[in-house]
């Protein structure tokens, strides 16, 4: 047996695996605190039925941090307490600031459709309604994005660390600059939204707004929430951009991998090029509407030699930067599994004769969820009031981010463009080396930020920046993390790492959102995309007059070709003392890839490469490797070739497809191996007649996942730093698929076995046998009793009260019951899990699913992973979860008649 340590068993307690759990914030906080909570005798009532057990989520650093606030709680957690914040959705309510009455219609899922005479009144009403349903979520988000989390939760070290990094970025400062940059109409909409929020906050105590304030108040003094400011909404866009920022992790991982491998060719093997022969890009050159500019040769970037550039000092600085940046709370979703599917099919292939569009963004999942469903309808659509739109909004920002209006439907997927670069800087005192060849030193930009901490003394933070961006490697005061770049240790100072990121320059994404909400054709989409600076998202769209299209937006940096110590394409941290590596400009918006009505009659955008290599502007070298997109293309092509037109049910069926490309690649090889022991071979036998589908009830899917987890551990854990253990996503599928053709590849050898050189078949056999034994412990001795859903569960967690350290009664109440899930990473039903964590638990997934039929918008469907409400006591807190998990959707009324027919609750908002 190998001496390689396997991940902790998914069925084990987090306490059994100290490497997988965040800091135990409640370890020394006294006896069982459930006894301190006076639960009313109505606990058995359905309204207070526990909603599930919490789980640890290693990515949710800033979410678990806040739970220490509740562990000394002695408040009475009664029915009255949890129901007090529930809003009234019926009758007539006064909203100061409205210019006329606004009608609100809510359906069985409590989704509001708002009807107003003016655009400003639409957004005032939206602000009021979202404050009713989601204010604590909004307040939490604005504290995170402003670097003020410790003001909300108190003296929690992780919260203070998160604030330090966010303040170093200066998200709020950039948002304040954007307020002066956006259009007059956008400012008016944001101001109206803020007025609506504040109208609801007025004269309400914190306990009337959310039960979270009641629990927080047991540990820190809770002041009345500050009025909502329009800049709070703009700052939220920075959090969205941060979580969807592109190849950030790959850039750092290359440098970290070099620290243990010491060979740039081995590093390159772990970051292979996109394989266009196997998985097609979104577009071919012939599809492009702007073919002339697309076929112009882009800036070719030279792959240099890493050489001595990746010294120990640089590695330590990069590692410190990674530690600091990982402390930022996950608000949207990160990593390989945080992708999305979106596709559009032309009317020639649909039952209705008009285009159909499907979208399901794969993001972090929590309760309450990321999205807030809404319809926003001007009573009379005009230039003054141009909105008749429905879809998915963010609580805290007006308008609709993804959805459709009467003329256009659009979906978004993360394009993955490289919009961040790390610059290794030479810093000496308060200066940095601007140009080594000219021996030019420049002063650092230095400012002081004060972080206020509820119940404790403020913390002062010195933020230092170069021309490239803020220095992030020393934010947390980590000692001994930087080294000297010279033997003398003084001439060039120390290494630090600066982050250059497109979102740290003010942009007009807010303008783009309102422009998309009112867009009607491809030209409107192109105009909106030109303003969609960050994050860089692929837009697929369909129009009511029969067109389908693709548009790439985003602010994309232009990098020069450089012969130097590292590649100049943004794949490695860059030397900040060489001005040749500086960004030169932005790719002009009219050169960004776009297409209209491609010959094949459909477009699939699922995070794969946008264009074939050598076509169009340089966007990135680090794409998703396209296994989801290729499966979608295959299913679309098969149905088209069979002559069966698509309807909404077909689109939803594809969204829920759970066929595994991992199995399709690896199982034939596994079945060729000889496993001598009959006990060990029992697992392998499950694979013989497996159809490669990963349903929740599948024994073979459970076994294969354990094989894949153990294969990655056996193959790579001995070679790489712990921080970059393989997550198991599409990158690793591509790497292993290539290595299967090289039985003696260096990575197959287990470095921990002295004087033994392992080969491919030995490692594969080891993975088979250890997986069988692991599942014997984790599930059952009998393989036929195994099932994927018992391992692959989604346990939604409240971002503040859902983690460890909170009294169990509170935690159980705010966290919905876990649900068994099919699917997995790089599967169309992309319920991602992290193979390096020791758990098969779902970490990301389709945050919503929508299908839009342009022939009959009322025949469209939608669903979110939770529900419309942010109040745990509401029946709509998680009332869509079971249907979502089962792959089902709800009717999506849009026309006034359909909305009226679906109305369960009516509200009139009056001035």
UniProtKB/TrEMBL annotation:
Task: Locate the transmembrane regions by residue number.
Answer: 59-80
The record's annotation in Gene3D superfamilies points to: 1.10.1400.10, 2.30.120.10, Glutamine Phosphoribosylpyrophosphate, subunit 1, domain 1 (3.60.20.10), Penicillin Amidohydrolase, domain 1 (1.10.439.10)
Q: Where is composition skewed (Basic and acidic residues) in this entry?
A: 284-294
Write out the biased-composition intervals (Low complexity).
7-30
Q: Which UniProt keywords apply?
A: Hydrolase, Membrane, Transmembrane, Transmembrane helix, Zymogen
Read off the InterPro entries from this record. Answer: Ntn_hydrolases_N (IPR029055), Pen/GL7ACA/AHL_acylase (IPR014395), Penicillin_amidase_A-knob (IPR043147), Penicillin_amidase_dom1 (IPR023343), Penicillin_amidase_N_B-knob (IPR043146), S45 (IPR002692)
Region Disordered, residue ranges? 1-37, 284-307, 558-577
User: Member of which family?
Assistant: Belongs to the peptidase S45 family.
Question: Mind telling me what this protein is named?
Answer: Penicillin acylase family protein
Tell me the superkingdom of the source. Answer: Bacteria
Q: Which Pfam families match?
A: Penicil_amidase
Which residue windows are coiled coil? none
């Amino acid at each position: 047996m190998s001496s390689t340590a396997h991940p902790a068993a998914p069925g084990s307690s987090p306490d059994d695996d100290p490497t997988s759990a965040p800091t135990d914030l409640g370890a020394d906080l006294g006896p069982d605190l459930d006894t301190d909570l006076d639960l009313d005798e109505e606990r058995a009532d359905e309204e207070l039925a526990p909603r599930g057990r919490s789980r640890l989520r290693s990515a949710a650093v800033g979410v678990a941090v806040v739970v220490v606030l509740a562990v000394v709680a002695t408040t009475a957690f009664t029915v009255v307490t949890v129901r007090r914040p529930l809003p009234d959705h019926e009758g007539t309510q006064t909203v100061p600031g409205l210019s006329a009455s606004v009608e609100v219609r809510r359906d069985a899922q409590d989704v509001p459709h708002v009807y107003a005479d003016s655009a400003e009144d639409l957004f005032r009403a939206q602000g009021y309604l979202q404050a009713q349903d989601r204010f604590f979520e909004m307040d939490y988000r604005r504290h995170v994005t402003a670097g003020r989390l410790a003001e909300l939760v108190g003296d929690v070290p992780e919260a203070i660390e998160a604030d330090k990094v966010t303040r170093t970025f200066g998200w709020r400062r950039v948002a304040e600059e954007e307020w002066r940059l956006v259009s007059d109409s956008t400012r008016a909409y944001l101001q109206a939204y803020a007025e609506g929020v504040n109208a609801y906050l007025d004269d309400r105590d914190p306990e009337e707004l959310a039960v979270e304030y009641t629990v927080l108040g047991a540990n820190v003094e809770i002041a009345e929430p500050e009025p909502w400011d329009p800049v709070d909404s703009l700052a939220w866009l920075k959090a969205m951009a941060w979580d969807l920022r592109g190849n950030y992790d790959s850039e750092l991982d290359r440098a970290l991998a070099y620290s243990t491998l010491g060979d740039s060719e081995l590093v390159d093997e772990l970051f292979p090029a996109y394989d266009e022969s196997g998985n097609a890009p979104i577009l071919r050159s012939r599809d492009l509407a702007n073919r002339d500019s697309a076929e112009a040769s882009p800036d070719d970037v030279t792959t240099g030699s890493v050489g001595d550039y990746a010294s120990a000092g640089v590695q330590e600085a990069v590692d410190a930067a990674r530690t600091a940046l990982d402390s930022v709370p996950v608000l949207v979703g990160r990593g390989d599994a945080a992708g999305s599917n979106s596709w559009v099919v032309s009317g020639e292939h649909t039952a209705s004769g008009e285009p159909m569009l499907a979208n399901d963004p794969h993001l972090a999942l929590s309760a309450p969820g990321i999205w807030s469903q809404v319809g926003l309808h001007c009573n009379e659509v005009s230039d003054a009031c141009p909105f008749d739109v429905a879809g998915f909004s963010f609580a805290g920002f007006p308008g609709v981010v993804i959805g459709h209006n009467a003329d256009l439907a659009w979906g978004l997927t993360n394009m993955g463009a490289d919009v961040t670069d790390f610059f290794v800087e030479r810093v000496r005192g308060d200066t940095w080396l601007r140009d080594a060849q000219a021996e030019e030193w420049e002063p650092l930009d230095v400012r002081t930020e004060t972080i206020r901490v509820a119940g404790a003394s403020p913390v002062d933070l010195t933020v230092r920046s170069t021309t490239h961006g803020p220095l992030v490697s020393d934010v947390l005061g980590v000692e001994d993390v930087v080294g000297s770049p010279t033997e003398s240790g003084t001439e060039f100072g120390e290494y630090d790492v600066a982050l250059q990121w497109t979102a740290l320059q003010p942009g007009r994404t807010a303008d783009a959102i309102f422009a998309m909400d009112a867009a009607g054709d491809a030209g409107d989409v192109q105009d909106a995309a030109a303003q969609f600076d960050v994050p860089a998202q692929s837009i697929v769209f369909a129009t009511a007059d029969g067109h389908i299209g693709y548009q790439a937006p985003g602010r994309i940096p232009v990098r020069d070709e450089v012969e130097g110590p590292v590649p100049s394409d943004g794949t490695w941290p860059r030397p900040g003392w060489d001005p040749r590596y500086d960004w030169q400009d932005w790719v002009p918006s009219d050169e960004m890839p776009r297409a209209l009505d491609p010959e094949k009659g459909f477009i699939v955008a699922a995070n794969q490469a946008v264009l074939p290599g050598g076509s169009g502007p340089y966007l990135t070298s680090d794409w998703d490797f396209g296994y989801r997109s290729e499966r979608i293309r295959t299913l679309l092509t098969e149905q088209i070739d069979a002559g069966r037109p698509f309807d909404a049910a077909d689109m939803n069926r594809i969204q829920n497809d759970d066929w595994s490309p991992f199995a399709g690649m690896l199982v034939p090889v596994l079945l060729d191996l000889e496993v001598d022991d009959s006990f060990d071979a029992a697992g392998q036998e499950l694979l013989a007649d497996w159809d490669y589908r990963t349903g929740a009830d599948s024994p073979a899917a459970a076994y294969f996942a354990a094989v894949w987890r153990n294969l990655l551990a056996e193959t790579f854990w001995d070679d790489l730093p712990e921080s970059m253990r393989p997550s198991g996503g599409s990158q690793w599928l591509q790497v292993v698929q290539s290595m299967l053709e090289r039985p003696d590849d260096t990575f197959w050898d287990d470095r921990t076995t002295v004087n033994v050189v392992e080969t491919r078949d030995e490692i594969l056999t080891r993975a088979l046998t250890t997986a069988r034994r692991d599942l014997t412990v984790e599930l059952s001795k009998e393989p036929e009793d195994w099932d994927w859903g018992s391992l692959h569960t989604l346990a939604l967690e409240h971002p503040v009260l859902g983690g460890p350290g909170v009294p169990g009664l509170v935690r159980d109440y705010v966290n919905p019951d876990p649900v068994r899930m099919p699917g997995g990473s790089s599967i169309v039903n992309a319920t991602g899990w992290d193979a390096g964590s020791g758990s098969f638990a779902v970490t990301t997934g389709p945050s919503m699913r929508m299908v839009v039929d342009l022939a009959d918008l009322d025949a469209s469907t939608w669903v979110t992973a939770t529900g419309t409400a942010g109040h745990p006591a509401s029946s709509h807190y998680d009332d869509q979860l079971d249907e979502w998990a089962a792959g089902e959707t709800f009717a999506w009324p849009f026309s006034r008649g359909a909305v009226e027919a679906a109305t369960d609750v009516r509200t009139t908002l009056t001035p």
